[in-house]
Amino acid sequence: MKSVIKNRVWVVLILRRRKMKLILSKCKTSDFDEVSRILSENNYIQIGDSRVEPQNNLEMFLFFESHEKERVNWLSELLKFFNVSEEDYEEHNIFDDTLHQYNAVIILKTPNNLYAHSLSQGFRVLEKIIDEEFGLKFAEKTIKNEHITLKNVSYIQKNKMKGITNYKKDQGEFPKASESYAYVSGKPDFDFYGNSIDCGTGVSFPKNFDINSTEGFYQLSELLKNVDEALTLKDNKSILPRKKRIAKKSQLSKLLDEEVVKRIVDNTDEIGIALDVSKIHLVNNSINIYSENNHLEIYISNHLQKTKEELEPYDGAIVEYIRKNNEIITSLTDIKIRVTNHEYHVIESRPLKEWIYCELEYESMLYTLDSGYWGYFNDKFSELLRKQLEEVNRVIEYNDEFNIPYISGEGRLKGEGGYIEKLSEGKNYIKLHQRNINYNGVPIEIADIYKRDTQELIAIKRGMDTSNSMYSFEQSILSVQLLRNTTEFDVEKELRKYNDRNIYEDKEKFPTIKKPTIGKILDSRISSVLWLQSTEKYVKMADERQFDFNQIGSILLKLKIVDWYSSILENNFTPKIYMGKDLQVNKKSQS
User: What's the domain of life for this entry (predicted)?
Assistant: First the structure.
């Protein structure tokens, strides 16, 4: 028993010496009563006295929440299985009493603003009261581009965080098209803030504050005074490309939720939806990993038993479900997704809004839905994307030999198949379509066609459908990875196996390709996309040889084009895009 008391005293001594590491968030409102009300509604109660630093008029308030904490569900089972003794219980502080979770939020009130700092799980309630753009706004006011040393950027493609890039000191930061900043770290222009600050939804400062001392409390108040002043600066030190969020409970967010459903039901083509069901899913700063044994179910709130269906992770399945149940669906918020395990026990249930990426042009503005929030991109993001697409425009070519009539149908003639069959009748073209190579469990085509005279690999795409077009560009990116690693993936053997007529009898589907030709295919360093257009707007641009990717409506597709272009160049390949006309002769009979 003495050892237990000794350990507890030691913890108290550590806490007394601890200084406060400030991660500062800014409240949406400067109305203390309103913030207090929201915290109270979420079981955070103000306790103790308020504290005032008189020189800078900083007031601080403590809001506290505690609740019983569930025991670790595996603990009792293992203790019993391994016959853990009572002596071990005491020695290692294993108790059967009720556990508690303690959380806190400190509100810091200056003459101009309200700020917040959380402890333990207090960050969860902060989401309801803070301005999530504060951190990046503060970065723009205080850090020059050349002083940004670390950034966390989201490449806006189906909710995937594509990468974190670390920049060396003084190397400078130059934003790229498709990057939406979520976090930056760097040296501020004002030494008072420290050598480096981290800016995301809030701001983390390097200095720790001993708030129990008069000097430490004063230093904290000086920091808050300087933060207030920085926010009033007229000019920015930098402008970061980013997406600006719209509050979930705002009238605009509600209107956009309703408009999405309306357009889906009305069967319009103005909207693109992509469902994010990756095995790794980001939720509230935590990572959930779902295995192939899990199931996705979709249902409508208050109509679970009547509307529950198992869902295939495709955007088309969602659209079909909404149309089928349109009489009881008025908004995206009516629809829920839940994950179940192999025994169909519910693991997690969340609104559909948090699982899909969606684009919507509404009243002359383009909005995107990502991770549950509607938003729009700032001018810097749009400017960078526009400039990058202008660069991609320079690799567009036009060749009339690709504008050929063809018949589409079933089997080999399905989709692009009919066009590929017709084009490959010419001796200058070798068909590679459907000669799949295994790339980490994913079947990948090197290309649809190999063009002999120019030694280029060509992927063929019809139309402007966002999902299919993105898939084609992604396949092209992966094919380059295969060509950069031909030995590792045994690419030559994989291509030659389709010459074996004992296994692949259909010679028309898989024509024989001799070894020297396969060698030339593997040596190709030109990655091309042939894009056949049938929509009047895009056909006209192709006819006039003035195709402009900035005229495409889908941001998601624009970003994928930029991603493809950058990936091809980074791998020392030559990117090329041919724009042609889709001259399917039996289109009406096929529709």
Answer: Bacteria
